[in-house]
């Protein structure tokens, strides 16, 4: 096989590989959107108004304090948890933090706890179909929206205005008690 044929073959294989990757990514993205839309329309968990019970304050001796001076917030979390900052990258996420990353069942795509500072357009796209299940909530003195819905797992997200961004605080339903304790200690700092 001469040098020109080898180059053409390599270029063709690279082009086919890129095409397959792009097609697979587009199919996966569309399939996930369809699945999410079906789950959202078929199985909202709750649509009642809720708030954080003030009696659920975390015992300080059993927690650590996470403080973020760049974005100006802090909260208490279980002392046995490990937290990981900026564990994923997205053009919509300016900062993210995942909790309980040391757990045996840790899933970076569905962590026990999530803080995500995102652009407003991300919230509009991701939560547009959830307006009917939105609940009013107040966290750290700021009014926001709480969403309970089902994707692959039952999910709880709290969305708070955050200057030019939006703040997502999220968890899976099985961590709701811990999540409520974290929300009860959440503070905005200057």
Features:
Protein Transport Mog1p, Chain A, alpha+beta, single chain, seven-stranded antiparallel β-sheet, three-stranded antiparallel β-sheet, 190 residues
Number of domains: 2
Q: Shape from CA axes?
A: elongated
| Overall helicity | 25-40%
Task: Supply the CATH architecture of the largest domain.
Answer: 3-Layer(aba) Sandwich
Strand proportion, as a percent range, falls in: 25-35%
Helical run tally:
3
Order of helices and strands: HEEEEEHEEEEHE
CATH topology of the largest domain: Protein Transport Mog1p, Chain A
Task: Give the low-confidence spans.
Answer: 30-60
Specify the structural class.
alpha+beta
The termini sit apart by 68 Å
Question: Whole-number average pLDDT?
Answer: 80
Major sheet size, sense and barrel closure: 7 strands, antiparallel
CATH class of the largest domain, named Alpha Beta
Radius of gyration, whole Å: 21 Å
Provide a short characterization of the protein structure:
This protein is α+β, with helices and mostly antiparallel strands and 190 residues long.
Structural features, described:
There is one protein chain. With 190 residues, the chain is of the alpha+beta class. The chain has two domains: 42 residues; 129 residues, Protein Transport Mog1p, Chain A, CATH 3.40.1000. 31% of the residues lie in helices and 33% in strands. It is built from three helices and ten strands; from the N terminus they run αβββββαββββαβ. A seven-stranded antiparallel β-sheet has the order 3-4-5-9-8-7-6, with helices on both faces. It has a three-stranded antiparallel β-sheet with strand order 1-2-10. The longest helix is centred in the first third of the chain and has 40 residues.
């Amino acid at each position: 096989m001469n040098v020109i044929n080898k180059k053409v073959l390599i270029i063709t294989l690279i082009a086919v590989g890129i095409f397959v990757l792009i097609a697979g990514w587009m199919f996966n993205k569309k399939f996930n959107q369809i699945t999410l839309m079906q789950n959202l329309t078929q199985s909202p968990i709750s649509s009642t108004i809720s708030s954080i019970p003030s009696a659920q304050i975390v015992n300080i001796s059993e927690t650590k304090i996470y403080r973020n001076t760049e974005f100006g917030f802090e909260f208490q979390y279980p002392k046995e948890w490990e937290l990981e900052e900026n564990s994923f990258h997205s053009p919509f996420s300016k900062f993210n933090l995942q909790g309980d990353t040391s757990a045996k069942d840790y899933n970076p795509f569905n962590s026990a706890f999530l803080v995500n500072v995102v652009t407003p357009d991300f919230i509009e796209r991701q939560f547009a179909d959830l307006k009917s299940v939105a609940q009013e909530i107040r966290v750290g003195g700021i009014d926001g929206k709480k969403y309970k819905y089902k994707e692959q797992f039952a999910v709880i997200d709290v969305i708070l205005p955050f200057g030019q961004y939006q703040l997502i605080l999220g968890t899976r339903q099985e961590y709701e008690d811990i999540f409520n304790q974290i929300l009860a200690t959440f503070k905005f700092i200057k």
